[in-house]
Amino acid sequence: MTGTELLPIASGARSGRFLLRELAGHRAATLGAVVLGIVAAAATVVPVYVFGVLVDRVTEGAPASTIVGVVAVIVVAAVVGGVFTGLGAYTVALLGERILASLRERVVARALILPVERLDRAGRGDLLSRVGDDVAVMAKSLGEVVPQILAAVLLVAVSIAAMLGVDWRLGLAGMVAIPLYVMALRWYLPRSAPLYASERVAMGERAQALVSSMQGARTVRAYGVESEHLARIDAASAGARDIAVTVFRLFTRFGSRSNRAECVGLSVVLLAGFLLVRDGSVTVGETTAAALLFHRLFNPIGMLMYSFDDVQSAGASLARLVGVLDLPDERRAVTGREPDSGRIELVGIRHSYDGVHEVIHGLDLTVADGDTVALVGSTGAGKSTLAAIVAGSTEPTTGTVRIGGVPLTELAADRVRRHVAVVSQEVHVFAGPLIDDLRLAAPDASDDEVQAALDLVGAGWVADLPDGVHTVVGEGGLALTAARAQHVALARLVLADPAVAVLDEATAEAGSAGARDLEDAARAATRGRTTVVVAHRLTQAAAADRVVVLEHGRIVEQGSHDDLVQAGGRYHDLWSAWSESLADR
Ligand SMILES: Nc1ncnc2c1ncn2[C@@H]1O[C@H](COP(=O)(O)OP(=O)(O)OP(=O)(O)O)[C@@H](O)[C@H]1O
Q1: Where is the ABC transmembrane type-1 domain (predicted)?
Q2: CB neighbourhood size of 187 (10 A)
Q3: Distance 382 CA to ligand 1 centre (A)
Q4: In angstroms, what is the span from residue 185 Cα to ligand 1's centroid?
Q5: Cβ-based burial of 21 (10 A; exposed 0-12, middle 13-18, buried ≥19)
Q6: Each residue of 504-543: pLDDT tens digit?
Q7: Which of 5, 361, 385 to mutate to test the pocket of ligand 1 (most atoms within 8 A of CB)?
Q8: What class, spelled out in words, does domain 344-584 have in CATH?
Q9: What's the pLDDT tens digit per position in 132-169?
Q10: First CA to last CA across the chain, in angstroms?
């Protein structure tokens, strides 16, 4: 890895447009939520209004029975308000969850076809934090905060309309608070937005530190560097904690500013009411209603002000998810052209992982349809890199890879996998029934086809498992040895039936029965396919149609095994050393 380069983050404007487009896609639910919210808000305002009327009646000396009608209105309004608030919150939450579920699916789908290097540069923790932490932040917002915000906005709008309806001067008096609220927000938002963004980044870094230490736990333990890793995790956690504390401090100061706005607003309403009642232009009941309406606004306005926090936090999370979604599919210009064979052509391939050190230096290679080429060379010669370039899992820095006449960059990522299958050193066995693992690349394969693939690669051990091919393997199930996992990978390759196979496995001990077994399995699985094999054991090279010897990222020799042994060059030396080492065992 060449330093962290976190995945991109979308701009605020782009995230806003994304949200609007999603809402437009769910027009009926969006409109329904607004209408339900307006009815709920109106039902909340009615009792306050009626209370003002009651005050006037009492002042006028109305009989005690007047209260019955008022109570009845309040009860009905409370029931209507409750029902509509519930329905509104449900509609908003449902709408939000739908949008979030589809967003999460699209982000994961986009991430799964990211070039491996891009993901390596970003660190898997960053991606996990986005589909984990960020989705959780948004889910909380959508489930709790957004319904409350919508209800609060509508309540504020309806209450202001009601205050103006009682008496426009009382309404205006209440509005004195608005500039104070605006000032509080203008003080708070520019300070908190960057803090929230950095809080998200710090969370990503903390996840990254944790994930990388856990993934490399064995190595960490083997080298006794636990304390360094713990220190790194500590530092990342401390960074996240310090930002959270700063956010909270800022938030408290913001709270006192909004209380000031409430205090001033209510005082002005009462003062205006006092003067107007003295003038005889409004009644005591009207002033009471206006003051209560204003007081009732404390909660929704406070809720709005405080939820700017969550909104910003959710906004930062949304931007991080949309950022992944918008990642350009850099090199692809999909044309729909399909390879007509398994012929491989590499033209002018150069590659550098870090943009500084080139590890493949301008390499050309052609493999005829159906041929097997073995890549040989000392450690670090570039064999695995070249294999990954053929497989399309590493994009070369420059040069063209063609399969069956079509550049890989013209094939959509899923089409590449259709034509080129890879068996690498790390075979992942997914937890679940073995048959699901086998069907990974060919979900429609019948039981007979799966069995035929297992037979072809000689995986007789599957029949001896407790539940045969339905045995649960992987985490929580039966652990497979590395050699068995390779068998599974080879059977998967047979089921995927690609024209090109790339093998880069170093599982078996050279010269062992296991190695011979796996080599036979690999030969059977790749028969008839164009195959590039990284020859970790030179017996693999001896069986290939052609051997390509790499050194320092260049081809130094190529030809048949026999010709190269006879030629007495680099391959001859490697082969002699190999044969001697086998004889010594
Ligand atoms: N992910 C990576 N990031 C940075 N450098 C890398 C990466 N993978 C390989 N390299 C470097 O690229 C060069 C070629 O490595 P590569 O693994 O392709 O060689 P190889 O011939 O397959 O070696 P081996 O037999 O040890 O696997 C080496 O210098 C290696 O350190």
Answers
A1: 31-313
A2: 14
A3: 6
A4: 53
A5: exposed
A6: 876 666 566 677 888 899 999 999 999 999 988 888 899 8
A7: 385
A8: alpha beta
A9: 888 888 888 877 788 888 888 898 889 888 888 888 99
A10: 36
CB-CB contact of 382 with 478 (8 Å): no
Question: For residue 538, how far is its CA from the centre of ligand 1 (angstroms)?
Answer: 19
ipTM reported for the complex, 2 dp: 0.96
Distance 385 CA to ligand 1 centre (A): 6
The Cα–Cα gap between 130 and 148 comes to 25
CA distance 137 to 204: 13
**pLDDT tens, 243-278?**
989 988 988 898 888 888 889 999 999 999 999 999
Residue ranges around ligand 1 (CB below 6 Å): 353, 359, 377, 379-385
pLDDT score of 494 more than 90 = yes
Range list of H helices, 468-512 = 482-496
As a whole number of angstroms, the distance between CA 333 and CA 313 comes to: 36
Residue nearest to atom 26 of ligand 1 (CA): 379
Ligand 1 atom nearest to 536, measured from its CA: 25
Helix (H, G, I), strand (E, B) or coil at 438: helix
How far is residue 498's CA from residue 475's CA, in Å, rounded to a whole number?
28
The Cα–Cα gap between 288 and 294 comes to 10
Q: Report the separation in Å between the CA atom of 117 and the middle of ligand 1, taken as the mean of its atom positions.
A: 13
Residue of 119, 349, 353 to test ligand 1 pocket, by largest number of atoms within 8 Å of CB: 353
Domain locations in the chain as residue ranges? 12-325, 344-584
Same fold, 12-325 and 344-584: no
CA-closest residue to ligand 1 atom 4: 353
Q: State the amino acid at position 451 in one-letter form.
A: Q
Is the Cα torsion angle 138, 139, 140, 144 positive or negative in sign? positive
Strands 358-367 and 472-473, bridge-based pairing: unpaired
Q: 12-325 has which fold?
A: ABC transporter transmembrane region fold (1.20.1560)
Nearest CA to ligand 1 atom 8: 385
The residue nearest atom 28 of ligand 1, judged by CA position, is: 380
The owner of tokens 């309309």 is 161
Which of 1, 2, 379, 384 has most ligand 1 atoms within 8 Å of CB, for mutation? Answer: 384
Which residue puts its alpha carbon closest to atom 7 of ligand 1? Answer: 353
Half-sphere exposure of 160 (CA within 13 A, CB side): 15
Tokens describing residue 59: 């002042």
Q: Taking the CA of residue 342 as centre, how many other CA atoms within 13 Å lie in the half-sphere pointing to its CB?
A: 24
Tokens found for residue 271: 């003062």
